Amino acid sequence: MRLHHLEIKYDQDRLIIENDNLKFVKMKRQKYFLIIILVILVSSFFLITKSQICTKGVDQVDISMIDEIDLSRIYNITQDLSSYWTRLTGTLECDLAANYIRSTLNGTLNVTDTTVENWNYNETVSSNVVARVNGTNLKDELVIIAAHYDSISSGGTAPGANDNAVAVAVCMEVMRVIQSMAPLNRTLLFLSFAGEEQAFIGSKAWVTQHSDEFSKIIAVINLDMIGYGEYLTLIKNEQSNWLADMMITSSSIVNVTFSKTNSPYPETSRFDHDTFWAVNIPCISIFEGGATYPYYHTENDTIDKISFSLVEKCAQATLLSVLYLGTMKFEHNWTNITIQIFSIWGIATVLPILIYKKLK
């Protein structure tokens, strides 16, 4: 009799355990379903918010503004910067060059909203120079032009005229033109980095200091070694391919040839665009095309080696691209988004069934 009671109790306990197991499996299944739904919603939202490559209803860019580019001013700034015997990051001369850039922007060029942002390097303080021209109705959105101002050389001096004083001069001239005209819709930032020659640590410092602004950045145009060659190369990745196409289209009236590439030349080189690519910000670098600059990182990188006719075209193309980015209206490419979302939902209809069979 006692054995019979024990058997009944055992069966009851087993039934309770089985019911608990079923409840657990059911809860686990519901948890998986909930996670899947959340993933679908987040993925769909991500696609909609990020897929704004297609642009329509673009405001007309005033192409006559390219006549405002003053090549003599670009020449003078290039000459001043390359007159420092070096702009090696961490040296006094590099700091003096940063002060020159800021004071010239603030004074001569009337770009009054300028700052110097410091960061540590080899137990010294180095600087990035930042200038801003505020926009109007979309002033929280940022268009960035960038160029490193530091230099390096295997010889006794590092004038760095083409690498990269002339690109800094072009950016400064573009800022002057934008400052003198009616404001753009978006805010224009000029970032001039030190530390590019030391694995672009200056741009890394800026990105670290401004991580809260990533969502505000529409695009970055970086200029590096633009004063030599037969044409200009646009270095881009998949995310910034639209930006390269935009620059080619917006500057079509400028008599300059652009070549798009996914790899810098030489392929072992690295640029400040790598910093922005690493945090998924659309960025292209304008670089020399065709002939290789023979005075790269030598004491012979002087102003007389620069083709200022090519530099002028680069400045005009950069200005037109800034005008375009500063006023353009982004619209979603709904066709691509629809295909992507339906693909996600198609997978989502199969995945729960597989999970259900596995847990059954």
Question: Please, could you describe this protein's structure?
Answer:
46% of the residues lie in helices and 17% in strands. It has 360 residues and is α/β, with parallel strands linked by helices. The protein folds into two domains: 24-51 and 333-360; 63-327, Aminopeptidase. α1 runs antiparallel to α9 (334-359), α2 (71-82) packs across α4 and α4 (161-180) crosses α8. The longest helix is centred in the first third of the chain and has 49 residues, at 2-50. The model has no long low-confidence stretch (mean pLDDT 86).
List keywords for this structure.
single chain, 360 residues, alpha/beta, Aminopeptidase, 8-stranded mixed β-sheet, globular
Topology:
Blueprint: H1 2-50, H2 71-82, H3 92-106, E1 114-121, E2 124-133, E3 138-148, H4 161-180, E4 186-193, H5 201-209, E5 217-223, E6 231-235, H6 241-250, E7 258-261, H7 273-278, E8 283-289, H8 308-327, H9 334-359
Parallel strand pairs: 3-4, 3-5, 5-8, 6-7
Antiparallel strand pairs: 1-2, 2-4, 6-8
Helix pairs in contact: 1-9, 2-4, 4-8, 6-8
Work out the helicity level: 40-55%
**Secondary-structure-derived class:** alpha/beta
Overall pLDDT metric: 86
CATH superfamily of the largest domain: Zn peptidases
In CATH, the architecture of the largest domain is 3-Layer(aba) Sandwich
Our estimate of the beta-strand percent is: 15-25%
Listing every helix as H and every strand as E from the N terminus to the C terminus, the arrangement reads HHHEEEHEHEEHEHEHH
Quick overview of this protein structure:
Helices cover 46% and strands 17% of the residues. By secondary structure, the chain is of the alpha/beta class.
